[in-house]
Amino acid sequence: MASAGGKPTILLLRRLDSSFATALRERFHVLDFHASGEPLAAFLAAAAAAPEPPRAAIVVGGGSIRADASFLDTVPSLRCIFSTGAGVDHIDLAECARRGVSVANSGEVYSTDVADHAVGLLIDVLRRVSAAERYVRSGSWPVQGDYPLGSKLGGKRVGIIGLGNIGSRIAKRLEAFGCVIYYNSRRPKDSVVSYKYFPNVHDLAAKSDVLIVACALNKWTRHIVNKDVLEALGKDGVIINIGRGANVDEAELVVALKDGKIAGAGLDVFENEPRVPGELFSMDNVVLTNHVAVFTAQSRSDLCAHTISNLEAFFSGQPLLTPVHDDSIVD
Amino acid sequence: MASAGGKPTILLLRRLDSSFATALRERFHVLDFHASGEPLAAFLAAAAAAPEPPRAAIVVGGGSIRADASFLDTVPSLRCIFSTGAGVDHIDLAECARRGVSVANSGEVYSTDVADHAVGLLIDVLRRVSAAERYVRSGSWPVQGDYPLGSKLGGKRVGIIGLGNIGSRIAKRLEAFGCVIYYNSRRPKDSVVSYKYFPNVHDLAAKSDVLIVACALNKWTRHIVNKDVLEALGKDGVIINIGRGANVDEAELVVALKDGKIAGAGLDVFENEPRVPGELFSMDNVVLTNHVAVFTAQSRSDLCAHTISNLEAFFSGQPLLTPVHDDSIVD
């Protein structure tokens, strides 16, 4: 099914930089929500009523537009939803499966960048890089005396929740620092023999010095790090989250940090982005970044190529490169 | 030669935490400059005139007390100088050798921590961690729009100046991130075949995306990164310095950053510590820490054990564990 000019019609529901948008328009007839200036409901209704309604949609990972039953009712022509993120928590996978709508995500495009950022956050928390930065920039170095010691990476037991594309890359990097790798996932990975597997996150936390959240967000992993897990991690423990904010019970995390029940945190994601709990701003043992773990020029470029490859596969009747199924999303 | 109580006398010329000081006093008769409250000249003269003058001294790495001919003239009984740092730029090695005064340093005690910090600085500069931190803590995230993209670690050509204890550990870590490792040192390392060797730093900079200074400071390496090297590194290049401030021509570095002749810098050391050039404070592409690359509780504890082992070796006539010679100090 193609529009005038022979290009297949796609629904674009996220903002893209101009080179990405241009590359899409060269290949597809793009119905661009943000460029339309219309309210979402009116935009979707018009798209659905077009002579060549869209069969594929591009949505933003973790965005405000949810691909749920109501959305699919509005544009019943859709047969493929492509998320530009690794996470698909904004897509109702069961509903898509029921209707025969295939789903794809960014696959491994972001995995190395997110893993790099996770390691950066961990070094920062343990070695107090951002805190030292504030100390230097405030002019405190020449006038103050002792500076608090950091904590060595080597020998740290790092528990990774979700040993998928991202988690396994984090593990590989941290092995080079002399860390000991533990992990939790729904099932042990047959291919992984050198990392100890923990069937539940509480036990993983109890045995770990550092807990890194690297799993997808879904009904099983919402608040997978809760009050009990934080207490099991303990007062010398550090938590790193590059998954989704709601993987961690943020209110309990703030309490644990305030009460010294854990030692520190490095957070790239938050439960109500862009809102970050104000209590964290006064803490020197937390590192806070604005969901930038995927933000590199190279991954943007890779994402553009990957998105087009998936859409071309879909429109030519080939298998999607990075399909997402309802049962494949824990790690 | 021992003091009353049978303990050998040592000169302590740096401040130590209490557990380290206690461990020393259990084994040695410690003449403690900072505890004495005396001016340095008077303190040294009194030590030299004591019935059991000190044969060993502990000095701080990179500190203000220089172990030069004048110092050695003042306390002629000294036969061993132990630096608690890896760098010995404050010790006149040639003069020590001429007088038969042996020198030892901290060896590999700090190497992993410094390597970890170097990698942390590099991730921070490339992925804008501290800059994102400021953005979040200032409350900008909810009100501002686009955030600038960072740069991927994978594929970066990293030129390491000095492939010694620290540089080789930096290389090992960055290999796990998919970086390509180049290096410069006075001689190629026979044991290293997988990293390309560059006999001079200018050529290394010209071929590298990132330059990491991991060499000792001495007459050959002072300002080894100068204006020409910075220009060879180029406008997309990043410099990381965890060596000594004076390995880099700091004034030229500031100019290069201001003029956009290089892309960014991560600096743990400065030419006139604790003074940091004020121009750097307004830059978002630099990361500044207060010479904390060695600051972990674990390395402090390791240093205590290592110092005592070296001193006990010296006083029992055994070889020092980590001797430093005049020709062994580039990398």
TrEMBL record, chains A, B:
Limits of the D-isomer specific 2-hydroxyacid dehydrogenase catalytic domain: 12-324
Protein name: D-isomer specific 2-hydroxyacid dehydrogenase NAD-binding domain-containing protein
Domain D-isomer specific 2-hydroxyacid dehydrogenase NAD-binding: 119-293
Organism listed in the record: Brachypodium distachyon (Purple false brome)
Family label: Belongs to the D-isomer specific 2-hydroxyacid dehydrogenase family.
Keywords, sorted A to Z: NAD, NADP, Oxidoreductase
GO MF entry, a single one: oxidoreductase activity, acting on the CH-OH group of donors, NAD or NADP as acceptor
InterPro entries given in the database record: D-isomer_2-hydroxyacid_DH, D-isomer_2_OHA_DH_cat_dom, D-isomer_DH_NAD-bd, NAD(P)-bd_dom_sf
Signal peptide from the UniProt entry: none
